[in-house]
Amino acid sequence: MLSSYTQKFPNSSHDDFEAATSSTLPPHTQFTNHEALPSLDDSYINFTKSYPSFANTSQLDRIRAQEYHHLNPFNICFDYTGYGLFSHAQDQSSSYASSSSRPPPPPPPFFLISYKSVTLHSQILYGGQESELESKIRGRIMAFTNISEDDYTLVFIANDVSAFKLVADSFQFQPHGELLTVYDHKSEAVDTMIETCKEQGVHVMSAKFTWPSLSIMGRKLKKMVMCKRGKRKKGLFVFPLHSGVTGTPYSYIWMSLAQKFGWHVLLDARALGPKEMDTLGLTMFKPDFIVCSLYKVFGQNPSGFGCLFIKKSSISALRESGNATSMGIVGLSPAFRSVSPHGTEQVLSSSEIVELSTCTSLESGQSRERLGAGLEIECRGLDHADSVGLVVISCRGKYLINWLVNALIRLEHPHPPTGHALIRIYGPKISAQRGHVVAFNVFDWKGEKVDPAIVQKLAGRNNISLSNAFLQNIWFSERSDEEGQRALENRDKVSNKTRKSGFGITVVTAALGLFTNFEDVYRLWAFLSRFLDADFVDKETWRYMAINQKTIHI
Q1: What pLDDT, in 10s, does the model give residues 166-213?
Q2: How far apart are CA 445 and CA 420, in angstroms?
Q3: Do 274 and 311 belong to one domain?
Q4: For an engineered disulfide with 2, which of 6, 158, 502, 506 has Cβ 3.0 to 4.6 Å away?
Q5: In which band, very low, low, confident or very high, does the pLDDT at 227 lie, cut at 50, 70 and 90?
């Protein structure tokens, strides 16, 4: 089975795409001085010449300008993944009834989140009274993710950690059952699942990844999927379609093989882009569980929730578990703002409202005389993704992430005595199949790695939001390069925080979102190129001290 990206772009060969990507910058050119970079305008002209179909994605630029004003050259976000329920403009346009002439207060949440004291098994079988808001948002999400309500039930979860723990607590592992995960990086959600399973006596296994490509060690994983170890019975296979840190794509065939050998499959869809649920693989393989994240506008008010999809034919694989009570199942209810005669304001849930003549429509945030007439909802973030479509979204992300990768590997220290590049990419380089995220580290002119936390802090001061992650489950051969050897040598020196994960490599990550544009990736490139200046970190430290009159620890 081909990967999802190959299915979407059947007519683009790897060689043609790599050649087009390489031509977005002057051929055979390494940049050794940040002041020698081509301008933003010139870079964009070359970019569009190499990727002429990028012009077909201009609809996303118009939507960004109209609806997502907080995304601008002074607020560049590369640390966000998840689907946005609402647009920024939808949030900011909210207005509420008030008896005073004072300026309107800040908008309240579009909805309130409350925890349910119920097990996952009971929630699925018996449910309970559901708010109209929950019902409508449930239907909207199911339609957006292209998951049939005939095949799956959806449970709202507080966050992804809760979702993974709920499945671990509730899954009916057979005696000597197994948990098999496929992650090249440390994940709090996966670690929580592993610890929960170990407490139940479940045998835990993890896929391994080769250095330096970070591709799956296929033979080893195949053996773990197929192997019948003594009396052990199959259990739960936890699998993402690509790494949420390195962007490495994984084939659907692993889900098919796991199902063939009796595993229940949890598909981790948190790193999938909008509309990628529309791909052929999901409709063919139908995993038993799917986890994804729903947020409003980059984690703003409200912070959002997770979604756990459970295949109805797999409900029998769950058990009633007291440990799963109150572990993250949530309910959604509309939020209303009331104004007292004294002018004080209060945000109330629908259950707390007795007499209120106006309410907030989730459609537009406008106050309406329609309490009890039924809520209208409009999830503008999802609507925008639907209106643009899978092919346009995927093409745009493919072009931007590969331009960024190509640009980063063109940065090189001047006259390096040992050929040190400024940036090291982990995982795939230029590839039409890679995910829309890149993991990398910055190295100084001596070949020493710059602490990823320092890179992240300095980026933040330049209004660029980055993340960092910890690569693990890596297999280093005896011939591994210098960095791999250092990771091996330092395996006994890892901090208490990472000791449970073994040893690995801390990296910086940049994830592209639905509305990332060319200027965003160019400005990230321009910022990272400043590390070509051997004194850049020291200069930034002194500049911060001069402005803020205090010492900064980096």
Answers
A1: 999 999 998 889 999 999 999 999 999 999 999 999 999 999 999 889
A2: 7
A3: yes
A4: 6
A5: confident
